[in-house]
Write a structure and sequence with these properties.
Layout (H helix, E strand, L loop, with lengths): L10 E4 L5 H12 L3 E6 L2 H13 L3 E6 L5 H15 L4 E4 L21 H28 L3 E6 L12 H21 L4 E8 L8 H4 L2 H9 L9 H12 L10 E4 L7
Parallel strand pairs: 1-2, 1-4, 2-3, 4-5, 5-6, 6-7
Length: about 260
C-alpha cells in the first residue's frame, strides 16, 4: 500500500478541469504531488481552480483547450512538455449532454438533429480520441503513462433519453479498450471511468428539480448522489502506480446502480 503522496514527479493534463469532476480530479492530483495542467474553455473558473491548487501548496497551470480542436490539442501538449518536461497522465474529463431546453422532455431519436448528434460526439468522443492521439508520443518518451477516459454508466446501459450522449459514452468505453491493446507494449495504460449520478454543474438542471432527481436517487442503492470527489478518487487510483497492471478496464463508480 502506498503511504504518502501517490503521484510525486508525475505531470498530468486534465480536460474539463474548471469545474465538477475535472476540478476535483485536478485538485486530487496536485494534492498527491503531481504538476497539473488544468484545461477548459471556461477561463475564469479554470484560473480559479489553479489559484486554489497553488494556495494549497500544489503546482498547476491553466491552458485554454477546446477539446474538439486538434491544433489546440497539439499546442496544449507541446506547452505541457515545454513547461514540465514530460507527460505522464491524461484525464479526458470534458463532456456535454444533449438535453432539451426544458431539461425534462425526452428527445426521441426520430426528432434528433444531425447537428445536435455531431455536437455531442465532437466533445465526448472526438475530443477523447484527439487527447489520446497526441498524448501517446510524450508518454512513450517518458517510458509510459496512464490515460483516463471518462465515460458514464450510460456508456454501459441505456435509458429513455440522451441517445447521442449514451452512444458517445459507449464509444469512449470501447475506444479505451482498443487504445489499451494498441499501446500496452509502450507501457501506456488506458482505462475508462463510468460515473453514476453525480452532483456537478452538468447534472444540476436535473438534480435541482425534485421531479427529475427522485427517480435517479431511487435507482441508486446507496441512497445518495455522488460528489465529484468520489470520481476523482477513482481517477487518482488509475493515475497512480497502484494500478500499474490495469489497462483496458472499466471502473464503475455509481453507488450500485448498474449492479441491479
Amino acid at each position: 500500500m502506498t503511504v504518502g503522496p501517490r503521484m510525486l514527479g508525475k505531470v498530468a493534463l486534465v480536460t474539463g478541469g474548471a469545474s465538477g469532476i475535472g476540478a476535483a480530479t485536478a485538485a486530487a492530483f496536485a494534492e498527491h504531488g503531481a504538476s497539473v495542467v488544468v484545461t477548459d474553455v471556461n477561463d475564469n473558473l479554470g484560473h480559479a481552480v489553479v489559484d486554489k491548487i497553488k494556495a494549497n501548496g500544489g503546482e498547476a497551470i491553466y491552458l485554454r483547450l477546446d477539446t474538439t480542436d486538434e491544433e489546440q490539442w497539439i499546442a496544449a501538449v507541446a506547452e505541457t512538455v515545454a513547461k514540465y518536461g514530460r507527460l505522464d497522465v491524461l484525464a479526458n474529463i470534458a463532456g456535454i449532454a444533449d438535453r432539451q431546453p426544458d431539461n425534462k422532455n425526452i428527445q426521441k431519436i426520430e426528432n434528433a438533429s444531425v447537428e445536435s448528434w455531431n455536437k455531442v460526439f465532437a466533445v465526448n468522443s472526438t475530443g477523447v480520441f484527439l487527447g489520446v492521439k497526441h498524448a501517446i508520443a510524450p508518454m512513450r518518451a517518458a517510458g509510459g503513462g496512464s490515460i483516463i477516459n471518462i465515460s458514464s454508466i450510460y456508456g454501459i446501459v441505456g435509458s429513455k433519453g440522451g441517445a447521442a450522449y449514451h452512444s458517445s459514452k459507449g464509444a469512449v468505453r470501447t475506444f479505451s479498450k482498443s487504445a489499451a491493446i494498441q499501446y500496452a507494449e509502450d507501457n501506456i495504460r488506458v482505462n475508462s471511468v463510468h460515473p453514476g449520478f453525480v452532483d456537478t454543474p452538468l447534472t444540476a438542471p436535473a438534480h435541482d428539480d425534485p421531479e427529475m432527481a427522485a427517480p435517479r436517487l431511487a435507482a441508486t442503492p446507496m441512497g445518495r448522489f455522488g460528489v465529484p470527489e468520489d470520481i476523482a478518487m477513482g481517477c487518482l487510483f488509475l493515475a497512480s502506480d497502484e494500478s500499474a497492471w490495469m489497462t483496458g478496464s472499466e471502473l464503475v463508480i455509481d453507488g450500485g446502480m448498474v449492479a441491479q
